[in-house]
Every structure is written in C-alpha cells, then in structure tokens.
Amino acid sequence: MFYVADTHALIKYLTGILPKKTQITFKECERGIHTIFIPTIVLAESFYLIKGGKIKLDFEEMISKIQSSENFVIIPFDIRILRLFSGIKEFEIHDKIIVATAKYLNANLITQDKKIVKSKDVETIW
C-alpha cells in the first residue's frame, strides 16, 4: 500500500511518539510491506522545526535514514502536483502541497490534521 506522511507524522515517527496504529504502518514500511512517500515540503518544514529548536533531531541523520530505505521515498513538488491544486479545498500552502501529493500518488495520507481529515479530499489514517 502507498502512503504519504505529513510533517507531524514523520516527526512523531522519528521521535517514537506515534499512536499504535500509525506506528504499525511505519514499522510495516520498514519491513517492506508498504511505501511511505515523503514530500519535499515535509522535509523543509522539518528542517525549520529542527533549526528552531522545536524538536530534537539531527536533520542530516533524518535525511540519511529516509534515503537509506527503499520503502521511504522522497517526492518533489512539481508541476504534476501543482496542477491538482484547483480540485483541493482551501488549506494553507504546505498542507495543500501534501494533500495534492497524496492525490497524485493515489495514496492514503498519514495525518492527524482535523481540517484535512474532515475535508475528505484524500483518504487519511492516524
């Protein structure tokens, strides 16, 4: 199965504070059962959270961990994703990119963002 992780999901996975169901999805990805796509905007948001001292992670280690796994895939923001914007409800730009990425990949979005979950623009899990 394909998933897209939002920033909170990725950070909570890396810091070990996910709820059990979501933790299982990430662990199954580590074992090769699923693929989790990480949008570049999620990495950019993570960088600023780390740099600002809001979370205690090493950004380079985080990138290395993601890149060393075949089942975590970094996906860039490009024109194919941008073209999906008009069919997505109004979110702030970061969330719109993440939702559009999930739509583009026909993937479930790992998020606890209530606005995204309520929108039903994409299937979500948490």
What is the number of beta strands? 5
Tally of discrete structural domains: 1
The CATH homologous superfamily = 5'-nuclease
User: What percent of the residues sit in helical stretches (DSSP H or I)?
Assistant: 40-55%
Based on CA inertia axes, which overall geometry fits? globular
Q: Write out the strand line-up for the largest beta sheet, numbering strands in chain order.
A: 3-2-1-4-5
Instruction: Note the gap between the termini.
Output: 15 Å
Low-confidence stretches: none
**CATH class label:** Alpha Beta
How many whole angstroms does the radius of gyration measure? 14 Å
Main beta-sheet strand count, sense and barrel state: 5 strands, parallel
For this structure, the CATH topology is Rossmann fold
Mean pLDDT: 96
Strand fraction? 5-15%
If helices are DSSP runs of H or I spanning 4 or more residues, what is the number of helices? 7
Structural class: alpha/beta
Architecture, according to CATH?
A: 3-Layer(aba) Sandwich
Secondary-structure element order, as H and E? EHHEHHEHHEHE
SSE topology:
Elements: E1 2-5, H1 7-15, H2 20-30, E2 35-39, H3 40-51, H4 59-67, E3 72-75, H5 79-82, H6 93-105, E4 108-110, H7 114-119, E5 124-125
Parallel strand pairs: 1-2, 1-4, 2-3, 4-5
Outline of the structure:
This protein is 51% helix and 14% strand. With 126 residues, it is an alpha/beta fold.
Walk me through what this model shows:
The chain is an alpha/beta fold and 126 residues long. The protein has a single domain (2-125), classed as 5'-nuclease (Rossmann fold), CATH 3.40.50.1010. The chain has 7 helices and 5 strands; from the N terminus they run βααβααβααβαβ. The radius of gyration is 14 Å and the shape is globular. The mean pLDDT is 96.
